[in-house]
């Protein structure tokens, strides 16, 4: 088992990591730890681990580290394990991963798995895999501006503070969103693989992370009041029921807007608009709290990336 650890994730607290690894080693699991040295390094490490025949690659970090690790595993046979050490740890909620090190280690050493079919986001300058969500509009603006020192000290609270600051500054420009070719307008958009958002909060109750395609949350109304209303509804799981919010399903999402508007992927800054989102070429299996069979089999259909609309101009 290869463990890829991002030492800069979350509050940099490694107590849980060592407790999980102690348990695994004491129960006879062969564990090799690889530490990331820079952004993107987890992908190269995961690729090497898969090439050397690893059956399981464990991402120890937040959702960004998981996404980078998965990017190096797609198309291979290794399963993904997760030791959540990030700030929001949204994917850990999705797969029912416990906080307790012994329970987590038990999951990593059991064959129980659930499929995850990641997404790919493409801008004119970069292509990046994501495991949980991509956003543009107000939430992406907050992610780009959040103070990293505050995030390290108070975790998710840093996003709440930044949200309150940005409410007064953000202009809420209109975005153009094409869902499988059909045009919509909204002030903000979140393209979600899974059900959760921002931690343990439900955004898209019907999302199926193991299937291709996305649930797209459109926030049609701009302005601080609408953003505040959405923020208040999120912890109650009522965001999708708000007037002005629609949850739609799509396989291919294109987002355009004013030049320079930021994009977030899995809670980290991920470039600027325009953006095209589509399925990764294959799913992977994740060591999870509950078993879910991958009905289509591991070698599921290979999707070819649709040409983004800006390429045709
Ligand atoms: N050694 C490193 N030095 C600096 N940055 C790194 C290093 N290793 C990985 N990274 C970057 O750190 C970013 C943030 O990591 P990650 O998302 O795992 O933690 P987080 O932001 O605290 O958690 P979450 O996404 O759950 O909120 C990743 O996008 C990755 O590119």
Automatic annotation (TrEMBL):
Give the DAGKc domain ranges. Answer: 1-125
Q: Which Gene3D superfamilies match?
A: 2.60.200.40, Probable inorganic polyphosphate/atp-NAD kinase, domain 1 (3.40.50.10330)
Gene Ontology terms for molecular function: ATP binding; kinase activity; metal ion binding
Which domain of life does the UniProt lineage start with? Bacteria
Q: Does the keyword Transferase apply?
A: yes
Query: Which GO cellular component terms, listed alphabetically, does the Swiss-Prot or TrEMBL entry include?
Result: plasma membrane
GO BP term, pick one: phospholipid biosynthetic process
* Pfam families membership: DAGK_cat, YegS_C
* Keywords associated with the record: ATP-binding, Kinase, Lipid biosynthesis, Lipid metabolism, Magnesium, Metal-binding, Nucleotide-binding, Phospholipid biosynthesis, Phospholipid metabolism, Transferase
Cofactor dependence is on: Mg(2+)
Read off the PANTHER family from this record: LIPID KINASE YEGS (PTHR12358:SF106), SPHINGOSINE KINASE (PTHR12358)
Protein name per Swiss-Prot or TrEMBL: DAGKc domain-containing protein
Q: Which organism is it from?
A: Acetobacter nitrogenifigens DSM 23921 = NBRC 105050
Q: Taxonomic classification, please?
A: Bacteria, Pseudomonadati, Pseudomonadota, Alphaproteobacteria, Acetobacterales
């Amino acid at each position: 088992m290869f463990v890829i650890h991002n030492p800069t994730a979350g509050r940099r607290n490694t107590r849980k990591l060592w407790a999980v690894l102690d348990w695994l080693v004491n129960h006879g699991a062969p564990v090799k730890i690889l530490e990331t040295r820079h952004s993107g390094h987890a992908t190269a490490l995961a690729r090497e681990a898969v090439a050397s025949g690893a059956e399981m690659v464990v991402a120890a970090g937040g959702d960004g580290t998981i996404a980078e690790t998965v990017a190096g595993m797609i198309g291979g046979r290794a399963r993904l394990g997760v030791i959540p050490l990030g700030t929001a740890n949204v994917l850990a909620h999705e797969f029912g991963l416990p906080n307790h090190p012994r329970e987590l280690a038990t999951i990593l050493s059991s064959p129980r798995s659930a499929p995850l079919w990641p997404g790919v986001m493409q801008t004119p300058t970069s292509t990046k895999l994501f495991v949980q969500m991509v956003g543009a509009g107000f939430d992406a603006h907050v992610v780009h501006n959040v103070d990293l020192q505050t995030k390290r000290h108070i975790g998710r609270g840093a996003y709440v503070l930044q949200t309150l600051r940005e409410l007064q500054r953000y202009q809420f420009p209109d975005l153009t969103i094409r869902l499988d070719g059909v045009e919509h307008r909204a002030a903000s958009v979140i393209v979600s693989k899974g059900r959760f958002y921002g931690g343990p909060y439900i955004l898209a109750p019907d999302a199926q992370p193991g299937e291709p395609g996305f649930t797209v949350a459109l926030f049609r109304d701009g302005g601080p009041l609408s953003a505040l209303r959405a923020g208040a509804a999120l912890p109650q799981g009522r965001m999708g029921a708000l007037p002005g919010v629609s949850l739609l399903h799509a396989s291919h999402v294109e987002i355009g807007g004013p030049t320079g508007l930021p994009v977030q992927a899995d809670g980290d800054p991920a470039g600027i608009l325009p953006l095209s989102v589509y399925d990764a070429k294959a799913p992977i299996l994740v060591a999870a709290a509950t078993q879910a069979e991958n009905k289509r089999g591991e070698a599921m259909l290979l999707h070819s990336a649709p040409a983004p609309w800006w390429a045709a101009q």
